Amino acid sequence: MNSIATDAQARDALKAGARVGLKSDKITITGGNPLKGRISVRGAKNLATKAMVAALLGETPSILRDVPDISDVQVVRGLLEVYGVKVSSPAPGELRFDTSNVEKAHFAEIDAHAGSSRIPILFCGPLLNRLGEARIPDLGGCRIGDRPIDFHLDALRAMGAIVDKSYEGIYITAPDGLHGANIHLPYPSVGATEQVLLSAVRAKGTTELTNAAIEPEIMDLIAILQKMGAIISVEPNRVILIEGVDRLEGYKHRALFDRNEVASWAAAALATHGDIFVEGAQQSELMTFLNVFRKVGGAFDVEEDGIRFYHPGGELKPVTIETDVHPGFMTDWQQPLIVALTQAPGISIVHETVYEDRFGFTEALNEMGANIVVHKQGLPDHPRRVARRDFEQAAVITGPTKLTGADVRVPDLRGGFSYLIAALTAEGQSTISNVGIISRGYEHFVDKLAVLGADFVFEG
Ligand SMILES: CC(=O)N[C@H]1[C@@H](OP(=O)(O)OP(=O)(O)OC[C@H]2O[C@@H](n3ccc(=O)[nH]c3=O)[C@H](O)[C@@H]2O)O[C@H](CO)[C@@H](O)[C@@H]1O
Ligand SMILES: C=C(OP(=O)(O)O)C(=O)O
Asked: Signal sequence: where (predicted)?
């Protein structure tokens, strides 16, 4: 159970809509136990899945290490296999991709992956390069706003692609191949930056991407592409230059650790008055989070092999946070931290500036006793560091509030993890359903809860 699923298991899980390592979709938690102990994190969901797509560009096999056992990895694996990529697992946490027989796939097989993840949109460049066409199923991922893909499609068009949206899903061709282009992103989108990278590395000529995202996962993807033979330079001021090359080889790479998972366990340690050592966490990718964690009253010790996060005693302190692109405060960190903020005396404010609708999860926290008021149009007059966006929202959290157990349903990945933390912090029993979604991005979270001394029953 603790290793990457076999081919057959992965396919069965996909068919059944099941999630990695989970037989049930419900967990009953009795709150009040501080989470204490040592757990480890592996590669980031937001890197490993893209690294898997990059393997499709290599003429020779690639090996990815520290691959997390999460359902998004299974989805991408399944889609690669549809195109004839032979995926094997030579060792636990390791995947090997043999691309010697990449071939066109039937639409039905591709569309079987509709709604399962956002990663399929990133197959465009590699597929156009290898097969001259790309069929993209309807995308999944967390429903936290509109999540359009206009930047992706505009970039592909600028590189010579023709986009046909007359089918369900999208069909893209590049009759004359992809060519380099000057592309400016209206917003430093992570996915659109990756789209350009994965498409431009084999395009003819040079691509200049401005207003690019520079998240650590993007830098790790660039490192992988460079290992494969790409020529990519990251210039000052969010400019990335990509010189197209004629051939890319496979890579060997250890995936960057999952900084979002680390931040989530750190918030869990704080909210439950706990003490968690997260092996594999690295300081440099977490600087912004660590500053906020300290300001809220959390303590941490950075060690060579990981970071210890703990509640040092005393009262927590309220904070004001604005989510932002890197190196700002990551939007995926706000949900777990908000649970800790319900325990801080005073008023905390979280401005969500990245997505249109990312506070839906707070309703259930209020049912558990939190006092969180969501301002759907944001707080326009509030002093801000990040420029206001048209659609942003703000959450005002007044604490401390006692949380009590409730029956709640997971709405999305990070919201779901925040419910686990709330239930662990609450007095009494909570039943959380739809927890399968959490396995989209948190490897073996049930096992980790057990290691950390949580009191729960998982109905398997
Ligand atoms: C699989 C993955 O890596 N997911 C991460 C990725 O999502 P993802 O790559 O989808 O996020 P983006 O950075 O693209 O989205 C940021 C903003 O840009 C907008 N936008 C994006 C593309 C586009 O074509 N048009 C458009 O308007 C989005 O609606 C959103 O408001 O980065 C997000 C921001 O760090 C993280 O929360 C997600 O965990
Ligand atoms: C929004 C997230 O992921 P995705 O883009 O895969 O939906 C997330 O990881 O919180």
From this structure: none
Ligand 2 centroid to residue 413 C-alpha, Å: 7
pTM assigned to the model: 0.94
Pairing of strands 182-184, 299-303: unpaired
Instruction: Please compute, for residue 277, the number of CA atoms within 13 A of its CA located in the half-sphere on the CB side.
Output: 9
First to last CA, the chain: 13
- What average pLDDT does range 316-327 have in this prediction? 97
The answer to whether 124 is a known catalytic residue is no
What are the distances in angstroms from CA 8 to CA 60, 248, 279, 314, 422? Answer: 24, 30, 31, 51, 36
> How large is the ipTM?
0.99
What residue spans define the domains of the chain? 7-41+257-458, 45-254
Q: How far is residue 295's CA from residue 276's CA, in Å, rounded to a whole number?
A: 18
In angstroms, rounded to a whole number, what is the distance separating the alpha carbons of residues 220 and 64? Answer: 12
Answer whether 7-41+257-458 and 45-254 agree in fold. Answer: yes
Amino acid of residue 11 = R
116 C-alpha vs ligand 2 centroid, how far in Å? 12
Give the pairing type, strands 275-279 and 36-40.
Answer: parallel
The answer to whether 446 and 458 are in contact (CB under 8 A) is yes
**Could you tell me if the CB of 189 is within 6 A of ligand 1?**
yes
Q: 211 Cβ partners below 8 Å, 6+ apart?
A: 184, 185, 186, 187, 188, 238
- What amino acid is encoded at 305 in this protein? D
- Structure confidence by residue, pLDDT tens digits, 103-130: 988 888 888 888 888 999 999 999 999 9
Q: Which fold has domain 45-254?
A: UDP-n-acetylglucosamine1-carboxyvinyl-transferase; Chain (3.65.10)
